[in-house]
Design goal:
Layout (H helix, E strand, L loop, with lengths): L15 E3 L4 E3 L14 E6 L10 E6 L10 E4 L13 E3 L6 E6 L11 E4 L5 H10 L26 H15 L3
Parallel strand pairs: 5-7
Antiparallel strand pairs: 1-2, 3-4, 5-8, 6-7
Amino acid sequence: RLYNEGLIYRGKRLVNWDPKLGTAVSDLEVVSEEEDGKLFHILYPFSDGPIGELRGLTVATTRPETLLGDVAVMVHPEDERYAHLIGKTVALPLTGRHIPIIADDYVDREFGTGCVKVTPAHDFNDYAVGQRHGLPMISILTLDAKINDHAPEKYRGLDRFDARRAVVADLEALGIL
């Protein structure tokens, strides 16, 4: 009845999930705190090889393990450094997938490299970008915060923090971290 009256909706949405309690947490119950984190810079090579002197796009992230669920890399539409790359694709490291380079005003050209990875299933801002661009949502975490079957087999079953260490080690071994 509530759905039919337009008072509630049904669909895939991002929620605050507590893997220890095994439940969603209301936005009203979440206390956000700024923390110093480590910023990892990762090269996403162009699918068709280097373009001029560029091998690919470098993104900066604090959660490298979530790259396993990336569906795009975005740049600001007015950023002259990258405008000519919009519509091309990059090879998503460690996955064998290729993802598009898109343009979105959300990108802060002054932060990091000006290139942002898009993981709609694991970030509220990326979710909004994904909705605007019709991007898929690839959830890579189980309800207890382990890597699920949507990720490459090597990482499946790892706790998110163990997966972070493994992803970082593998990116280093490839020379793209």
